[in-house]
Amino acid sequence: MIKIAPSILSADFCNLETEIWRIRSADWVHVDVMDGAFVPNITIGVPVVRSIRNHTDMFLDVHLMIDKPARFVKAFAQAGADMLSIHLEADHPTRIAQALQIMEDCGVKKAVALRPITSPEAILPYLEKLDMVLVMTVEPGFGGQAFMERQLDTIRRVRKLIDQFNPACDLEVDGGINPVTARRVVEAGANVLVAGSSVYGAPDIALAIESLRGAPDGDPARNC
Ligand code: DX5
Ligand code: ZN
Q1: Ligand 2 centroid – CA 94 distance (Å)
Q2: How many distinct structural domains can be found in the chain?
Q3: What pTM was estimated for this model as a whole?
Q4: Could you give the C-alpha distances from 155 to 125, 173, 201, in angstroms and in order?
């Protein structure tokens, strides 16, 4: 089943409670954490995740775009994240493995994320223990960028590895996802779709979420 995870990076940060309520027909809330070092942008941190947790029961999918994530995974888990994604490029492999172990000890779901430059095979040392792999379809750092076509091949290759070594693992894509690119990434093997600007920028958010799931406007199935 396809899961939709709207990114609150495109929401109004002054009204987060309302902005999360507006995406209640989605499956997960995607929270983009940026440190100004791993990516050239700064967004939100642990206290904001804790506040969000106090105001929603939705699944919190927290994407850590930070250097040396092992330093912070426990704090984000304790703040109420349900899933943490750490970038494979953000530290040495031994420290990535340590961060995943801390996540396991904290009882939070574990994901690794890949920048567009990173080879799909880089997930192999961790794959059997993962709940999800996140394939970036833009350079991490900003919402509203164009989908990178060449990442379709990465998605296909990650899907093959998941099917071979850990079929229960989710495959999430993030960046430039709209109803058109959604179809293409799902065909390539993704099953969790992050979307910021195409959801929050839409006049009808519930319809935008349904369109990402693959039920186009006018589809007779919608009227059943
Ligand atoms: C980018 C973030 C994305 C971003 C996606 O670094 O990880 O989650 O919010 O935004 P759109 O959907 O606008 O590309
Ligand atoms: Zn993200």
Answers
A1: 24
A2: 1
A3: 0.96
A4: 18, 8, 26
